[in-house]
Design brief:
InterPro entries: FilR1_middle_dom, HVO_A0261-like_N, WH-like_DNA-bd_sf, WH_DNA-bd_sf. It holds the Pfam family FilR1_middle. The protein is an alpha+beta fold. It folds into 2 domains: 74 residues, Arc Repressor Mutant, subunit A (Orthogonal Bundle); 152 residues, Endonuclease, Chain A. 48% of the residues lie in helices and 22% in strands. It has 11 helices and 10 strands. The chain has an 8-stranded mixed β-sheet, sandwiched between helices. A hairpin with a 2-residue loop joins strand 1 and strand 2. Helix 1 crosses helix 3 and helix 1 crosses helix 4. The relative contact order is 0.12. The model has no long low-confidence stretch (mean pLDDT 88).
């Protein structure tokens, strides 16, 4: 890392609180000291450093961020949010093989719901809440739990949600030959469209759409159990999730 890049990195890392305050409105030094609850000397050093890296300027008696400062703060905030989510969901992320690791576009601003080992199905409650308001559900289905079946069936019957599922071929064959998971009630419903994928699907991935919002999520499994749920409704996450879904849909066949 060059000296200039390191200086910018250090300035934003150490003085991001000042940038965060100034990004909304210019402030006098006295106002900054009051809001930051920092000493005058600390604010002085912070402003001097941020001015040196051209993230803050002084004019008309107040300090304000430059375009460079705003962009740097946005990039830093995104980085720290992503790192925090990686830390919170590390065990869940490590359940995915390297070739199917999650994209950072999904991890940024992601909500993490770890499953309680004693009551793992409770991790699905955020999905139930979203699905109650949804009119459309798209999903990749590499595995099935009875709890999934009931969540989807409730959405179809109570909310009249339309459902499109892409199911692994061997799993679909198993579901046709057993009623252990009560999945036949979903397969036989007129509001359900089933497509078969000849191979292994990477995630239990879903997209739920309502009149006002769209959510994407992944149910994390390991050793046959539910380990957690990852949810995101940012445009970047939705875009990445749709791309993954469409990739497998393009290679799937419609169940007759």
């Amino acid at each position: 890392m060059s000296d200039e890049r390191r200086k910018l990195h250090d300035a934003v890392h150490k003085r991001n609180e000042i940038l965060d305050i100034l990004v909304d409105d210019p402030k006098t030094k006295a106002e900054l000291i009051d809001i930051c609850s920092k000493s005058r000397s600390t604010v002085d050093r912070g402003l001097e450093l941020l001015q040196e890296v051209e993230c803050v300027e002084y004019g008309d008696g107040k300090y304000h961020t430059t375009p460079k400062g705003e962009i740097a703060l946005t990039a830093y905030s995104r980085y720290t949010d992503t790192i925090n989510n990686i830390q919170k969901s590390g065990r869940l992320l490590n359940t995915f093989p390297n070739e199917n690791s999650l994209n950072s576009r999904f991890i940024h601003e992601m909500d993490v719901h770890q499953a309680d080992p004693k009551i793992p199905d409770l991790a699905l409650e955020p999905i139930r809440e979203i699905l109650r308001e949804s009119t459309r559900l798209l999903g990749l289905v590499p595995t099935v739990h009875l709890s999934y079946t009931r969540v989807i069936e409730d959405a179809i019957n109570q909310s009249e949600t339309s459902v499109e599922l892409i199911i692994e071929d061997h799993l679909f064959s198993t579901l046709q030959n057993t009623n252990a998971y009560e999945f036949d009630r979903i397969l036989d419903n007129d509001r359900t469209s089933i497509q078969i994928y000849n191979g292994a699907l990477p995630y239990s991935l879903w997209i739920m759409t309502s009149e006002n919002d769209t959510y994407a999520g992944i149910i994390v499994h390991k050793d046959g159990g539910i380990k957690g749920v990852l949810i995101n409704n940012t445009s970047e996450a939705i875009s990445w999730t749709r791309n993954v879904y469409e990739h497998y849909k393009n290679e799937a066949t419609i169940e007759q």
